[in-house]
Amino acid sequence: MRSERKKLRSDASSSTIVHLSAAKGWRGGEQQIAYLLSELEQRSIQQVLVCIKDSILEQFCKDEDITHYSFTPGIIPSISFARCIYRISKSTESPIFHSHDSHSHTACYLAYLLFGVKSPLVVSRRVDFQIGQNFFSAKKYNAKNIAKIICVSNAIKEIISADIKAKEKLITIHSGVNLEKFNTNSFTTNFKRSLNLPEDHILIGNTSAISDHKDYFTFVRTAKEVVKKHKNVHFVIIGDGPLRAEIEKFISSLDLNEYITLCGFRNDIKDILPQVNIFLFPSKTEGLGTSVLDAFAAKVPVVSTETGGIPEMIENGKTGLSCTVCDHNCLANAVERLITDPTLRQTIVNNALLRLEDFDKSQTAEKTLAVYRELELDHFER
To answer: What CATH code would you report for 191-359?
Structure first.
């Protein structure tokens, strides 16, 4: 296990927050960890991140000078992670562990079972499906060392509540975004020009990973319906993922190569997202969907499905337009409404900006910090 850290304070009244992540890549959950780390760092909270060696999160911590440990997964990664958690529990004063994904939660449970780590554990739950019905999952989510389960939407809290015995441990803290991220009218890249499109073309896009639950097949079917009536539109998929080859093949099968561009992963989202005219988000499942919040902040009107936590952000006809899952005809009609009605577009953007104020990353951090403080009082300051 490798560590890079600043000297930790020896304040006996203050616990150390030990964040745990088993992610190698970078998606919405990792962005939320990064926001939380930065916000807590600004508040001088004693914390450390435990992550996989050479992961993107490790590089983030190096860039931001945030205390972290990195480890190399062994033959059985969960056991390697559990041993790491055990060592940290022995070397850290008053630790509160915070598991940010399922794999790190498993490692915490194994550390509890195999090594007797009984420090309070906070678990973040970001997905909107039921807890696995196998014996291990049931035990993992009802372990005695779990102090709180943070759900990123009310929808998740409702879905998993049937499987949690101590329901008082469940709490909703919505994910947050950087409200200032898109506060610019000056762009380094002219996105439409880079796509060889005329300025009067309407860009319809999504910034999600190309994975099953994001349902890009419905995205493509929606595009097929829209281009039947509107030729001055172009669809962009700004992201990458395991289903990219399948989606490319599907686009070709519907003769839509002229109307859809797969842009791949981009690190200039704050530059190009505000240049998209309509955000199309047809997910089949979604814990919350912070890509929607980014679209709000970028002043891009959203058309989405009604799944998971999305209705907690989008009120149909007010802060966006929404349809049932997989209904590409409804989604196409909603897109066409926004194409033909600039007043509706602006009204939705204005309402979405007001709704966005409830999803500030600073508020998310404050609510999470309140959970830590409660546990600190319960476990370390009796």
So the answer is: 3.40.50.2000
SS3 76: coil
* Close Cβ partners of 73 (under 8 Å, ≥ 6 residues apart): 52, 80, 81
Q: Where are the domains of the chain?
A: 2-176+361-380, 191-359
The answer to whether domain 2-176+361-380 and domain 191-359 are alike in fold is yes
Contact 117, 143 (CB under 8 A): no
Would you give per-residue pLDDT tens digits along the chain (382 residues)? Answer: 555 544 344 343 479 999 999 999 898 899 999 999 999 999 999 999 999 999 999 999 999 999 999 998 888 889 999 999 999 999 998 999 999 999 999 999 999 999 999 999 999 999 988 998 889 999 999 999 999 999 999 999 999 999 999 999 999 999 999 999 998 777 888 999 999 999 999 999 999 999 999 999 999 999 999 999 999 999 999 999 999 999 999 999 999 999 999 999 998 999 999 999 999 999 999 999 999 999 999 999 999 999 999 999 999 999 999 999 999 999 999 999 999 999 999 999 999 999 999 999 999 999 999 999 999 988 765 5
Q: Copy the structure tokens of residue 321.
A: 């337009």
How far apart (Å, rounded) are the C-alpha atoms in residues 236 and 207?
9
pTM of the complete model: 0.90
DSSP letter, residue 239: -
Q: Are the CB atoms for 232 and 202 separated by under 8 Å? A: yes
Distances (CA, A) of 91 to 4, 88, 94: 15, 5, 10
The dotted CATH code for 2-176+361-380 is 3.40.50.2000
